[in-house]
Amino acid sequence: MSRKKPARTRHCGTMDIHKMLLVKQPVYRQNRLKIEAYTAAHVLRSARTAALRPIVTIPVVVHIIYRTAAQNLSLKRIQSQITSLNQDFRKRNPDRAKIPSPFAPLAEDTRIKFALAKRDPNGGPTTGVTRTHTTATAFHMITNDVKRTSTGGHGAWPSDSYLNLWVAPRVLDHQGRELLGYAQFPGDPASTDGVVIATGTFGNPGTTAGFNRGRTATHEIGHWLNLLHIWGDDDGGCSGSDNVADTPNQAYDNSGLPTFPHITCNNGPNGDMFMNYMDYTEDAGMFMFTKGQAKRMWAALDGPRASIKTSEALQKPVAVRAVALSMPKRKVSIRKSVGREVGTAVRTIFDGASWVPIAGRMRARPKG
């Protein structure tokens, strides 16, 4: 079966990264098997517990990689992306009213929020944004070069405490195709853990037609929280599952702005849930996560992503307290207390913070 797609369509590189890591990182395969087994057990347990969970706020650091001034996105644009994420994940997006009535009862508030970090890895203050001017014309998914300073990008902040979002002008897959973004599932290498987003799709509004409401980030962070593509990545086979019961089986990814109902894989009368954030429609066509998807994300946050819940990145920067000492009434000369040193006469002396010039020269102590 073949399909004709629009000229500009969503393309996510997450599954390509996943397949590459399975080959290159044997431990990654074992991690993924353990995580999926944990998730299955967690989902079954969560069905027997209270529906409401504590709200989790995930600290975010946004690494802006830019060549031109226009690509050096403003803090306002960055904050607009955080706002969009919070609306989508908390089911407060204004367009949720467009969810078809048969699917509306399945839509879920995931009780997950996002905020720019306030504390950097050293405990100092941060806006939650880093900015790196680069000479690179494109960044490649297969080499993750956007995530290394040596290749024109920026290194990850500790992934157990931050969700790293890299924003870069051009992101290419292994075939040289333009990507809107890609992510890594839980269990991946910490040095590259996070999400990469093309500059034009970041923020609301972005500048890439059809993908300008910030939902590339919503989709990719869904992967970061262990969600699969809704069609099960079997390209029309009607046999691959996304391991979520309340998302109907569908043949392919949907693109553009489909009309409800769109039936495939004998999933009538309601057809594909193409308005789900984990499909490939344009931003204006996706409105929801389901209850089953929320349970998978909660499993990620209680399991392989649990450390993010205790991160100190959203706390105020570490404050340095003033030292309380009984100071002498008469000012003491540091130079005098040091005295003369053997050797060449010194010209500077340490005042507790830095080396400062001293008046005159301290004569060297004679040898012998």
Oligomer: single chain
What form results from the Cα inertia axes? elongated
Number of domains: 2
The biggest beta sheet reads: 6 strands, mixed
The low-pLDDT segments are 1-7, 361-366
Number of helices: 6
SSE pattern = HHEHEEEEEEEHHHEE
CATH topology of the largest domain: Collagenase (Catalytic Domain)
Instruction: Report mean pLDDT, rounded to a whole number.
Output: 92
Which structural class fits the helix and strand makeup?
alpha/beta
DSSP E strands, number:
10
| CATH level-four homologous superfamily name of the largest domain | Collagenase (Catalytic Domain)
Strand content: 5-15%
Termini distance?
96 Å
What radius of gyration results from the CA coordinates? 27 Å
Structure description:
By secondary structure, the protein is of the alpha/beta class. It has two domains: 14-310, Collagenase (Catalytic Domain) (3-Layer(aba) Sandwich); 327-368, no CATH class. It contains six helices and ten strands, in the order ααβαβββββββαααββ. The protein has helices at residues 14-24, 26-46, 75-89, 215-224, 291-302, 334-338; strands at 56-66, 112-116, 129-133, 139-140, 163-168, 171-172, 181-183, 195-198, 348-350, 355-357. The strands form three sheets. Strands 1, 2, 3, 5, 7 and 8 form a six-stranded mixed sheet that branches. A hairpin with a 4-residue loop joins strand 9 and strand 10. Helix 1 packs across helix 2 (26-46). The radius of gyration is 27 Å and the shape is elongated. The model is unreliable at 1-7 and 361-366 (pLDDT under 50).
